[in-house]
Design brief:
The complex is a heterodimer of chains A (about 170) and B (about 550). Helices cover about 25% and strands about 40% of the residues of chain A. Chain A is an alpha+beta fold. In chain A, the strands form two sheets. In chain A, strands 5, 6, 7, 8 and 9 form a five-stranded antiparallel sheet that branches. In chain A, strand 2 and strand 3 form a beta hairpin. The longest helix of chain A is centred in the middle third of the chain and has 13 residues. The model of chain A has no long low-confidence stretch (mean pLDDT about 90). Chain B has 22 helices and 21 strands. Classes of the chains: A alpha+beta (about 170), B alpha/beta (about 550). The interface between A and B is medium-sized, with 26 and 26 residues.
Chain lengths: ~170, ~550
C-alpha cells in the first residue's frame, strides 16, 4: 500500500543518506522523493512516497524518527492532507493539433510554459490522478520527454509538522 | 561559568579538555598520522592510554569497559585502515546497545574526497552501525560534538557514536568554552511508560494463570534487576532470560529458570510454552530467542517493555506495548499491581527443581569444563567469545558470584575475537574484580595479539580456552544441516596456545584431562598475570536445539 511520509530534518550533509539507508535496509524502493527548505532557517522537509507492507513501513518510520538529524515525521493521506505533484511534459504539436493540445492542458489545469521548434513544454501542479489523466490524454500526440517531482503534502487545518521545537539540553 | 575558563587553544587541546570534562579516565587507541596531534596532547596527560595491538581490539575494549562499568567507553584510531578496523567493534557495540564513543582521525580538510593517503569515508561507512556519527569540520565544533556524543551514547537505548576529526582541525585554534549550552531537537527518548498502558498491563497480569517474565539486555542496561525481581515475586512468575539478558537476575534466584531460545534450557522453554502472559522486559524478540515468529505469536499474550519505540512489534505482534525505561516501567507496574490488584493475585511458589546442570563431568568436554568452573562460585566478571563455548557458558555458568550484568558476551553480532579485548576492557573498568574469559580456539586466535597488550599493561585475566581444534559451531551446523559433511571447520594441531602466551610475556598450562583442570584453574587464579588454561577438548558434543513447537 502507498504511504506518504513527511520528515522534518536539520539541513545537514548526509541526512538524505541516513534516511535513504533505512528504507533500503528493509527492502523499500522509494517511489518518489522531494526535498526543500521550509520557513524555518536550517530546516528542510522531505516528502517520501513509498509502497509496501504497512507494519514494516511503520517500523522504518520509527527508525527514521530515531535519527538525531530528524526532528519530526508524519504520515499523510487524502483525508488529512492536501497532496500535490508537479510534472513537466514536452510534447510535439502541429498546426492541426495545437488547439486541441492547448485546450486539453487548460482543461486539466496545466499551463504551456514554452513553445520552441514544434514542441511545447507543459507544466501541471495537481493531484496525482489528474496528472495521470493528463498524461493519458497527451500520450497520442507524442510525448518527447516528461518528469514528475513526486508528491508533496500539507496537513489540512491547524496541524503542522513544523511546530516550534522542543529542545533537549545535553549539557551546560 | 567564569569567563576565565574561555581560552584559545588548539583543537587537540580542546578535545582533551572536553574529554576530561566528560570524566574520561582511559582511552583505548592506536596512533597514526591523522590523530598524532591528539597524541601529542595525550603525552603527560591525566587520561590513561592503552595502546592496543589492533584497532578492532580498541573498540571491543571500550565496549567491555562500558559493559563492566556502566560508563561510556572511548576508543581512538587514525584515519583510513585505523578507522575501518574499528568497524567490527562498533557494530558489536551497536547490536548489543553498549555505549561507546569512537574517535577517528581524518585526513586534512583540503584532501577530503580526493582519495588521499589513508582516507576513507568512515562517517558514511558507519551510518548503519552507530546511533549517530559526524564529521567535526572546525575546532569550534569539538565541544558541542563531544558533549552530544557522550550524552547520546548513554541516552535512551545506549549505543556507539563516532566522531571523525581531520588532522588540521586538531591543529587549528579556537576558543574553548566548556560551559557552552548544547541542545538537541531530534532525539528525545521516552523514559516513563504510558500510565494507561501500565494499567492495562497490570490488569492483564492480575488475571494471568501462568505469567512468565523474559529479561533481555535492556534490564541490565537500565539497572532494572530489583524491580524485575519484585514483579516476579508479586506474581510468583518464573524469570527467563535471553542470551543478552543472562546475569540480569542472580543465578540462584529461586524463580530463575535459565535461557530461552534455540539453545535454551528445557525448563525455560517449557515455562514459555505453558505461559498465558509473557512480559518481555528489554528483550527485542530476536530470531535466536523466538525461533518461529508465527508459532511464538500464537502462544500467549505479550506485554513488551522497551525503551526503543522501533523495537516495539518489530518482529512479534504484542498485546500491550510500553515504551520507556525498563526499571521505571517495572516500578510503576509493580506499584499499580500492589495498589489495584492486591486481592486478585496469589503469588505462586517458586518452581521446584534445580537449575539445569551438566551431568557427564568425567570426559574433557566444553560443558564439563564450564560446569567445573561454575561450581567454584568465583566472584568474577565473565566474558566469552563466540561459538559453542559461548552457548555452553550461557547454559551452565551459573556461579553465584556472577554479578548483575557481568556476563559479557557478543550476543547480537556474534563477533569472534570479542572476548579477549572485552575482558581486558572489563579489567580496566573493574580492577577490583577478577575477570575470566571463556573462549574457543577459533575465537581466541582472532584477537590473540592482545595478549601482548595484557602483559604490557599488566591486565590479568584468567583465560579458559576450549581447544577442540575445531570451529565447533560450524561443525555443529554442518552436523545438523549439511549431512555431517565437514568443510573448513577443523584446525590441525599446529598451535601451542600456552607457548603463544609465553611468547607474549605471559604464562599458562595445558590440560588434557578433566581431573587436571581444577588444579590448572587454581594456578591461574593464583597468578598475578593473565594465565591461559588451554583445555584440550576430546569431545565434539553438540548443543541441543530447542523449539517451541514440540
Amino acid at each position: 500500500m502507498q504511504k506518504i511520509i513527511s520528515i522534518l530534518v536539520e539541513d545537514k550533509p548526509g541526512v538524505l543518506m541516513r534516511i535513504a539507508g533505512l528504507f533500503y535496509r528493509r527492502g523499500f524502493n522509494i517511489d518518489a522523493l522531494s526535498v526543500g527548505n521550509t520557513e524555518i532557517p536550517g530546516k528542510s522537509r522531505f516528502t517520501i512516497t513509498v509502497n509496501g507492507d504497512e507494519a514494516v513501513l511503520e517500523q522504518v518510520r520509527k527508525q527514521v524518527q530515531k535519527l538525531v538529524n530528524v526532528h519530526r515525521t508524519a504520515e499523510h493521506d487524502m483525508d488529512n492532507s492536501q497532496l500535490r505533484e508537479y510534472a513537466l511534459i514536452k510534447i510535439h504539436f502541429t498546426e492541426g493539433t495545437k488547439t486541441e493540445i492547448l485546450h486539453l492542458v487548460d482543461f486539466f489545469g496545466g499551463r504551456v510554459i514554452d513553445i520552441f521548434e514544434g514542441t511545447a513544454i507543459v507544466e501541471i501542479a495537481e493531484e496525482q490522478s489528474r496528472i495521470d489523466l493528463l498524461f493519458a490524454r497527451l500520450e497520442p500526440y507524442g510525448i518527447l520527454e516528461s518528469l514528475r517531482t513526486g508528491k508533496v503534502s500539507m496537513f489540512r487545518g491547524n496541524r503542522s509538522l513544523n511546530q516550534p521545537p522542543k529542545l533537549i539540553k545535553v549539557s551546560g | 561559568m567564569s569567563p576565565k575558563r574561555k581560552k584559545r587553544m588548539t583543537g587537540a587541546r580542546i578535545l582533551y579538555n572536553v574529554l576530561m570534562e566528560e570524566g574520561v579516565d582511559v582511552i583505548f587507541g592506536y596512533p597514526g598520522g591523522a590523530n598524532l596531534p591528539f597524541y601529542d596532547v595525550l603525552c603527560d596527560s591525566n587520561i590513561r592510554h592503552i595502546l592496543v595491538r589492533h584497532e578492532q581490539a580498541a573498540a571491543h575494549m571500550a565496549d567491555g569497559y562500558a559493559r563492566a562499568s556502566g560508563r561510556v567507553g572511548v576508543c581512538l584510531a587514525t584515519s583510513g585502515p585505523g578507522a575501518t578496523n574499528l568497524v567490527t567493534g562498533i557494530a558489536t557495540a551497536y547490536l548489543d546497545s553498549s555505549p561507546i564513543v569512537a574517535i577517528t582521525g581524518q585526513v586534512e580538510r583540503r584532501f577530503i574526497g580526493t582519495d588521499a593517503f589513508q582516507e576513507v569515508d568512515i562517517v558514511g561507512i558507519t551510518i548503519p552501525i552507530t546511533k549517530h556519527n559526524q564529521h567535526i569540520m572546525t575546532a569550534g565544533e569539538i565541544v558541542p560534538a563531544v558533549k552530544t556524543a557522550f550524552w547520546l551514547a548513554k541516552a535512551g537505548r545506549p549505543g556507539p557514536v563516532l566522531l571523525d576529526i581531520p588532522r588540521d582541525v586538531l591543529l587549528e585554534e579556537a576558543v574553548y568554552d566548556p560551559d557552552v549550552v548544547v541542545t538537541l531537537e531530534g532525539y528525545n527518548p521516552i523514559i516513563s511508560g504510558h500510565s494507561g498502558q501500565i494499567k492495562r498491563a497490570a490488569k492483564l497480569l492480575s488475571g494471568a494463570k501462568n505469567p512468565v517474565i523474559v529479561a533481555g539486555g535492556g534490564v541490565i542496561r537500565s539497572g532494572a534487576t530489583d524491580e524485575l525481581i519484585r514483579l516476579s515475586q508479586l506474581l510468583g512468575a518464573p524469570v527467563l532470560t535471553t542470551l543478552m539478558g543472562k546475569s540480569a537476575v542472580p543465578p540462584d534466584y529461586p524463580y530463575y529458570l535459565g535461557m530461552i531460545g534455540m539453545h535454551g534450557t528445557s525448563r525455560a522453554m517449557e515455562a514459555v510454552k505453558r505461559a498465558d502472559v509473557i512480559v518481555a522486559a528489554g528483550a527485542r524478540f530476536g530470531d535466536r530467542a523466538v525461533l518461529s515468529y508465527d508459532a511464538f505469536e500464537k502462544m500467549a499474550k505479550f506485554i513488551q517493555i522497551d525503551i526503543d519505540p522501533a523495537e516495539i512489534e518489530k518482529t512479534v505482534e504484542v498485546d500491550i506495548p510500553i515504551v520507556g525505561d525498563a526499571g521505571k516501567i517495572l516500578e510503576e507496574l509493580n506499584n499499580r499491581l500492589e495498589k489495584d490488584h492486591a486481592n486478585d493475585i496469589t503469588a505462586k511458589p517458586p518452581p521446584t527443581g534445580e537449575l539445569e546442570r551438566y551431568e557427564q563431568t568425567e570426559t574433557m568436554g566444553i560443558p564439563a569444563a564450564i560446569e567445573l568452573l561454575s561450581k567454584k562460585n568465583l566472584d568474577a566478571v565473565v566474558t566469552t567469545d563466540v561459538g559453542r563455548h559461548q552457548i555452553w557458558a550461557a547454559k551452565y555458568y551459573q556461579s553465584t558470584g556472577l554479578d548483575t550484568g557481568m556476563f559479557i558476551t557478543s550476543g547480537g553480532l556474534g563477533t569472534m575475537g570479542f572476548g579477549l579485548p572485552a575482558s581486558l576492557g572489563a579489567k580496566v573498568a573493574r580492577p577490583d574484580k577478577r575477570v575470566i574469559l571463556i573462549t574457543g580456539d577459533g575465537s581466541f586466535m582472532m584477537n590473540i595479539q592482545e595478549l601482548a597488550t595484557s602483559s604490557h599493561y599488566d591486565l590479568p585475566v584468567l583465560v579458559l580456552l576450549m581447544n577442540d581444534h575445531h570451529l565447533g559451531m560450524i561443525r555443529q551446523l554442518q552436523d545438523a544441516f549439511y549431512d555431517a559433511k565437514y568443510m573448513a571447520c577443523e584446525f590441525p594441531e599446529n598451535v601451542d596456545f600456552v607457548a603463544a602466551a609465553r611468547a607474549m610475556g605471559l604464562d599458562g598450562r595445558r590440560v588434557t584431562s578433566i581431573d587436571q583442570l581444577d588444579d590448572a584453574i587454581e594456578e591461574g587464579l593464583r597468578s598475578k598475570h593473565t594465565f591461559v588454561v588451554e583445555c584440550l577438548i576430546d569431545s565434539q558434543e553438540n548443543i541441543p536445539y530447542r523449539t517451541y513447537e514440540d
